[in-house]
Structures are given as C-alpha cells and as structure tokens.
C-alpha cells in the first residue's frame, strides 16, 4: 500500500525481517465455523527432460494437419503417491492463419497445467466453444463444433490415458434407447443442445439424444 510522506525526510533506517509486516493470507470459514487458511500450491518445476505424446488432427477447415504435443511430468516420483500429469502443451501446423490465438491458447493451458490441482475442467470449457462459421464432422460421423473443441478432445484423451479422467459409463436406460432406435431404424438428425452431437431422435413422443441421453422430457 502506498503512503504519502508530507514531512521532510531527515533520517532513515533499514528494517530487518523481524520488523517487516507479515504477508497477507487468504482465509475462509469452514463448516464448523472456525477459520481455515487456504494455501495455493506452488508452481511445478520443469525438469530438463519430459516425455509426451503428439496427436495429429486433420480437419476439413485446412489442408494442413495440426500436431498437438502434450508433455507430462512425474509427481511424487519414487513414492507410493507417484502419478503422471500434463505439464505443457504445444501446437504446430504449416497453416499460419490461426498462429496468434493458438500460441496464446497453448500458453494459457500450459500455465494451468503447471499450477497443479485438477485440470479436467479444461476439457469441458474447450469442448463448449463453437465456431461461428460452423463445425465439421470427423471420420466416423462425430460432430466437432470447432477446432478449439477438438483440442479439448485431445486433452481429454490424454487425461484418460493418464488415469485423470474415467470413461463415462452408459446407463442401462440409455442402452435400451439406443437399441430401440437401432431396431426401429432411427438415426439422429437434430443437434443435441447438451453434447452438440447430431444424435437426437424422437422416442415415445419425446426428443432424445442417443449420445448423452439428454431429453426434453427429463
């Protein structure tokens, strides 16, 4: 905090550590009503060498492929709590059209990785980005709303391989709906407002998504 000095300075002294005011801490009330100090996790330090995986992404939006490299760091190495987590991400392509925002995106994502803690929220945030020019269909028929969403899907796959995200299980109710739609020859044509896939069919008079189970009828 800045302090305005209104009088003439005639002397000074160097303050030691014991005379310096303590650093502020962030506190929050716990469930029992007592105060609990919350400490931020320190940034993870980068070793000289890291292992990673490079994913090749091809889209109809560009004739040049996108190469996404995610490097991992081993946390608590040599202990029973050892685990692998992403540390940084790099994206490269011959197409320089989107160079500026791609570099900015990789720096922000890498900064989140290095702060520790959960990073799984990045997947949902990136996958919910829609390109105003429209999305595209991947080989196999899966709809991708934007290139950013596909980057989020690559991160999701990487986190699954590391064990940080588990593959969601399909409920028995959704399996039955998928089997009914297949038996009746129904195929999704409308886009689901929840998962963005063109997998919405009409079952029992209600619009139902065969991909995530979303239904207007609840």
What does this 3D model show about the protein?
With 218 residues, this protein is an alpha+beta fold. Among the domains are: 51-161; 172-209, no CATH class. It has four helices and nine strands. It has helices at residues 99-114, 121-127, 147-161, 172-183; strands spanning 26-29, 35-38, 51-57, 66-75, 83-93, 136-137, 143-144, 200-203, 206-209. A three-stranded antiparallel beta sheet has the order 3-4-5. Strands 1-2 form a two-stranded antiparallel ribbon. A hairpin with a 7-residue loop joins strand 4 and strand 5. Helix 2 packs antiparallel against helix 3. It is elongated, with a radius of gyration of 25 Å. 16% of the residues are buried. Mean pLDDT is 81; it is low at 17-32.
Summarize this structure briefly.
The protein has four helices and nine strands, in the order βββββααββααββ.
State the secondary-structure class. alpha+beta
Could you give a short account of the major beta sheet?
3 strands, antiparallel
Order of helices and strands: EEEEEHHEEHHEE
Radius of gyration: 25 Å
Q: Gap between N and C termini, in Å?
A: 54 Å
Quantity of strands, as a count? 9
Mean pLDDT: 81
What is the 3D form?
Answer: elongated
Strand-residue proportion: 15-25%
Widest sheet, order of strands? 3-4-5
User: Would you identify the regions where 5 or more consecutive residues have pLDDT less than 50?
Assistant: 17-32
- Helix content range of the residues, please? 10-25%
SS field, number of helical segments? 4
